[in-house]
Amino acid sequence: MIHKELKAFPQNFLWGAASAAYQVEGAWNEEGKGLSNWDQFVRIPGKTFKGTTGDTAVGHYRRYKEDVQLMAEMGLKAYRFSVAWARIFPEGKGKVNEKGIEFYDSLINELIKHDIEPIVTLYHWDLPQALQEEYGGWESRQIIGDFTAYSTELFKRFGDRVKYWVSLNEQNIFTMFGYRNSMHPPGVKDDKLFYQVNHHANLANASVIKAFRSYVPEGKIGPSFAYTPSYPRSPEPKDIIASENAEELNSHWWMDVYAWGKYPKAAWDYLEKEGLAPSLEAGDLELLQEGKPDFMGLNYYQTATFEANPLDGGVSEGEMNTTGKKGTTKASGVPGLYRTADNPSLEKTNWDWTIDPQGLRVALRRITSRYQLPVLISENGLGEFDKLEEDGKVNDDYRIAFIRAHIQSMQEAISDGVELLGYCVWSFTDLLSWLNGFQKRYGFVYVNQHEEGEHDLKRTKKKSFYWYSEVIKSNGETL
């Protein structure tokens, strides 16, 4: 659609930024916090870039008031952050750690004091290690009750002030990386277990949304999904089918369950034939039906292009670029379904992620047309090598160009009929990348933190900080 005139952003649009507890807080074993799966996993040699950990991260636990002051200076309308489950329940369940409650209570109040809408994520990958050791964490149905009890505690404590909640962050990533390619905890490679773990997460998500209705009746809740829209490599039907296969198994497999409470038929039939479909128990489908969200959270970074992949001798597991050396990613796929292919029309980042602002418009329209749900962009941003110049400035014009182009696509999507609630740029400050250390920087605020040595964590506003401030002030008119 080409519009003669674009619709304006809504007056109450949530211009925001985002973070995750493990990536920013630090204070990994302070004031009663229990161990998380990531606290354990990063201590395995070779799992992270130069052995980086979140022990200190960027020190947000001690410097949250300074960070919120910077948000207020920018004019931020919303801040999405996650709660560390093990900071609230050190053992994953049982006794509440009141010091943990106090921290998030203070953070929420500080945000509200500066007219910044808190958006609370219940789970952003840091599972209490005690639950992993007791019953395998997401491998057991016991997680459903424990995650619901933990979430309910947060609803009771913060629901009077927090309107927007995200249930699970990128369920497709933490299940896939934890149980399919072993790059995240618990470091398992087991396709059958991957699909079973994912089913348990679906049930936990639905259970929490159902409980939410009783405790925060005026609030809004939804999952955030890492959606990478699929394109065919060519107009050949075999590549179009490969793209459809990827969309079905990599996207509909999750979002259909969130929105409709049922698995997509083509994907289910395929997995059942392969002996990979999850085992269902009585009442599962009914619970999934009761977990319809108020919005779909969208974490959008890139699109992916696919081509046909032969059943015999086809490509399977590829190789991710976790070093920032462009061109080191290797094709991946599923024999008989699809394989990734280069898209010559798109540029790439140093981490080989495609740069495709129009892909965001595609994602927003597909979600809107298929699910008829409002969308909150819960993550979108550019990770790059940022340099602090001798004059104390960070001239990240490339980040400004990236975000500007994506905001333009958002406005086009709104003009197409998408109901867009807000835009949470990843991230406000620089933070610890799960696998890439501190070298891959996303923030509007530079943090003096690196992989090696002790650093003072000094905050420095980047050029993009001042630019995004003007975007917010003009409600998206000044780009």
Automatic annotation (TrEMBL):
Under SUPFAM superfamilies, the record lists: (Trans)glycosidases
One GO biological-process annotation of the entry reads: carbohydrate catabolic process
Report the EC number(s), separated by commas if there are several: 3.2.1.86
Entries under Gene3D superfamilies matching the protein: Glycosidases
GO CC aspect terms:
cytosol
Name the residues annotated as catalytic in the UniProt entry: E379 (nucleophile)
Enzyme class per UniProt: hydrolase
Please state which protein family the record places this protein in. Belongs to the glycosyl hydrolase 1 family.
Classification via PANTHER family:
ARYL-PHOSPHO-BETA-D-GLUCOSIDASE BGLC, GLYCOSYL HYDROLASE
Protein name per the record: 6-phospho-beta-glucosidase
> Which organism encodes this protein?
Bacillus infantis
Q: What does UniProt list as this organism's lineage? A: Bacteria, Bacillati, Bacillota, Bacilli, Bacillales
